[in-house]
Amino acid sequence: MTKTPTPIRVAIIDLYDNLPNEGMRCIKEIIAQQDHQVNGHAVVYEVFDTRAKAEIPDLSYDIYISSGGPGSPFDGEGKEWEKKYFSWWESIWNYNQNHRDKKYVFAICHSFQMMCRFFKLAQITQRGSKSFGVMPVHKTPAGEQEALYDGLPDPFYAADFRDWQVVQPDYRAFNDLGAEILALEKFRPHVPKERSIMAVRVSPEIVGVQFHPEADPDAMRVHAIKPERQQDIIARFGAEKYQELMQRLDDPALLWRTRDTIMPRFLVNAIQRLRPERNGNGQH
Predict the structure, then answer these.
(1) pLDDT in tens, 218-270
(2) Mean pLDDT computed over every residue of the chain
(3) Count of CB atoms within 10 A of residue 4's CB?
(4) Phi and psi at residue 190, in whole multiples of 5°?
(5) Which of 4, 44, 231, 271 shows the greatest Cβ crowding within 10 Å of its Cβ?
(6) Where do the structural domains in the chain lie, given as residue ranges?
(7) DSSP of the chain, one letter per residue?
(8) Would you say 263 and 213 are in contact if contact means Cβ atoms under 8 Å apart?
(9) How far apart are CA 196 and CA 1, in angstroms?
């Protein structure tokens, strides 16, 4: 009798702090779509309410997805959940440095900022104005070679809404880790400020992005069409910006393309490396 392979186990680290959101739905759907799709491997997930309940996964999982979330990336200073979260990052890093089999991590938006804090990669500062919309993301030279972006144009478009930014990279820290900046925010020639870092690959197993690659048009439209949100967007950004957002949500070449590329490819690549005996050539 053929033994059923152990499922790929994914831990979703929820940093939304009980804020109503579409991000968790999108993450779960992308993970569920990989079930039995990569060499027939079952994929299961478990959610950890880290920011609200200080829940944190142990090292028994194969893949970790750490979500976006509201507010400042410094809100957790001195709190139990942040201590546990940074301890988890340290345990993941130490594990990968000392084991042939690896743990794979994908950090989104708020988690990306927290990741950059943990690794001391750059400064995290408050933006002068909120970024909101379906925005262009520009690849760096390293990003042009990044497997997760293969097939995406330059720039590609992603859901981007944040009050904080990652800037002023510490290149010594990048060099010490072997990390690379993969993407930068849109060109703003009228703004005499540094462009925010939008994606970093820390290692072959760990990557983070400042935008929301999991977002689909339905997720953003749910919020954008609410009367109070529509009024807020128009009041803060203008009616033209609101119309641009709605038009971009209707363009299948923009958000859907990013949603169907980056996170699914991360999961496929991780699963193939986790189960090399089922990967055709047996390579790790």
Answers:
(1) 878 877 777 777 887 788 778 887 888 888 888 888 999 999 999 999 999 99
(2) 90
(3) 7
(4) -85, -5
(5) 271
(6) 8-278
(7) -PPPPPPEEEEEEE-STT---SHHHHHHHHHHHTTTTSTT--EEEEEEEHHHH-----TT-SEEEE---SS-TTTTTTSHHHHHHHHHHHHHHHHHHH-SS--EEEEETHHHHHHHHHHT-SEEEEEEEEEEEEEEEEE-HHHHT-GGGTT--SSEEEEEEEEEEEES--HHHHHHHT-EEEEE----TTS-SPPPEEEEE-SSSEEEESSBTT--HHHHHHHHTSHHHHHHHHHHH-HHHHHHHHHHHT-TTTHHHHHTTHHHHHHHHHHHHH-GGGSSS---
(8) yes
(9) 54
Tokens of 108: 């989104």
CATH 3.40.50.880 at 8-278, yes or no: yes
Q: Which of 217, 262, 258 is nearest to 106 (CA)?
A: 262
Q: Which of 77-81, 145-149, 164-168, 217-221 has the lowest mean pLDDT?
A: 217-221
Structure tokens at 227: 């009367």
Task: Give the separation between CA 262 and CA 264, rounded to whole angstroms.
Answer: 6
Pairwise CA distance, residues 169 & 85, whole Å: 22
Using left for φ > 0, alpha for ψ between -120 and 50, and beta otherwise, residue 176 falls in alpha
Whole-model pTM over 0.70: yes
Q: Which two tokens stand for residue 249?
A: 């949500």
In angstroms, the first-to-last Cα distance of the chain is: 26
